């Protein structure tokens, strides 16, 4: 990562749309790999599904896309939404030029301080119709960050990626399990941001994300510590929500409006 790219990222924190771009680009240019660590107790898991309720930001070349929202409501229909991302952002890694792009989804605002502890498991339905030569490489990464109501990254991202020679994505939609280990307390009032990064040694390599469908439920399973139950839209499930350390009940998200809602 060059100083120029770092300066560019921080410069993008000025202005509403530029903050959104910086938030998404953070996954691409200032992420840090993390190591695995043992987890003593099995935390409660919540599944967040990726939706395309609203396009918050799209760069002109479609290399950076940000959507509202990631939530616990599974898709019920069979119509699929397909989002295409293009690797157009140049980076130099170990003296090799690679081109990356990314898609991200934000959660609702957290009501309680919430600890994410353990292995975060992404299940992304991906495809690419563009083949690569045997001398070319491609990769996919996933990550997690914390952002405040103004779209500023206050922690992370931490991410992990896998790569291979030629295209690592099938030409037909396939589920790709990807993981990253996290131990972090997300503060009340902030959002969890989930990111997917695609990259290749070929500029302009295109990948598709399939989501918002019961047949292609792109999602992430998140281990939490400190509360039981899942935030949903049903009153029965809302009544099941408990914060173990405080005894508070109710949804872990509130509906106050901010950048991500």
Helical stretch tally: 3
Provide mean pLDDT, rounded. 77
Number of strands: 16
Q: Report the span from N to C terminus.
A: 32 Å
Give structural notes.
The chain has 261 residues and is mostly beta strands. It has a single domain (3-31, 43-254), classed as Sandwich (Jelly Rolls). It is 11% helix and 49% strand. The chain is built from three helices and 16 strands. The strands form three sheets. Strands 1, 2, 3, 4, 5, 7, 8, 9, 10, 11, 12 and 13 form a twelve-stranded mixed beta sheet that branches. A two-stranded antiparallel sheet has the order 6-16. It has a two-stranded antiparallel sheet with strand order 14-15. A hairpin with a 5-residue loop joins strand 8 (137-147) and strand 9 (153-165). The longest helix has 14 residues, at 16-29. The radius of gyration is 18 Å and the shape is globular. Residues 1-41 and 228-257 have low confidence and may be disordered.
Characterize this entry briefly.
The chain has 261 residues and is mainly β.
What structural keywords apply?
twelve-stranded mixed β-sheet; two-stranded antiparallel sheet; Jelly Rolls; mainly beta
List the topology elements.
Blueprint: H1 3-11, H2 16-29, E1 44-58, E2 64-71, E3 81-86, E4 89-93, E5 96-106, E6 109-110, E7 114-127, E8 137-147, E9 153-165, E10 174-186, E11 191-200, E12 206-211, E13 219-225, E14 227-228, H3 235-239, E15 242-243, E16 253-254
Parallel strand pairs: 2-5
Antiparallel strand pairs: 1-2, 1-13, 3-12, 4-5, 5-11, 6-16, 7-10, 7-12, 7-13, 8-9, 8-11, 14-15
Helix pairs in contact: 1-2
């Amino acid at each position: 990562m060059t100083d120029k790219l770092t300066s560019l990222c921080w410069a993008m924190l000025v202005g509403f749309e530029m903050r959104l771009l910086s938030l998404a680009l953070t996954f691409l240019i200032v992420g840090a790999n993390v190591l695995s660590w043992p987890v003593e107790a099995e935390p409660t898991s919540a599944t967040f599904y990726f939706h395309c309720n609203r396009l918050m930001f799209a760069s002109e070349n479609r290399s950076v896309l940000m959507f509202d929202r990631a939530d616990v409501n599974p898709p019920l229909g069979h119509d699929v939404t397909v989002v295409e991302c293009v690797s157009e952002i140049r980076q130099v890694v170990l003296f090799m030029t690679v081109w990356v792009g990314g898609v991200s989804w934000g959660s609702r605002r957290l009501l309680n301080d919430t600890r994410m502890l353990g292995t975060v498991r992404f299940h992304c339905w991906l495809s690419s119709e563009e083949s690569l030569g045997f001398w070319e490489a491609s990769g996919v990464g996933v990550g997690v960050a914390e952002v405040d109501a103004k779209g500023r990254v206050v922690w992370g991202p931490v991410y992990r990626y896998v790569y291979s020679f030629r295209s690592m994505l099938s030409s037909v939609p396939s589920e790709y399990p990807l993981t990253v280990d996290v131990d972090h307390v997300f503060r009340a009032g902030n959002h969890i941001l989930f990111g997917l990064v695609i990259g290749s040694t070929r500029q302009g390599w295109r990948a598709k994300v399939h989501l918002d469908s019961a047949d292609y439920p792109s999602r992430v399973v998140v281990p939490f510590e400190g509360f039981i139950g899942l935030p949903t839209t049903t009153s029965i499930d809302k009544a099941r929500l408990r914060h173990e350390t405080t005894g508070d009940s109710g949804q872990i998200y509130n509906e106050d409006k901010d950048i991500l809602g």
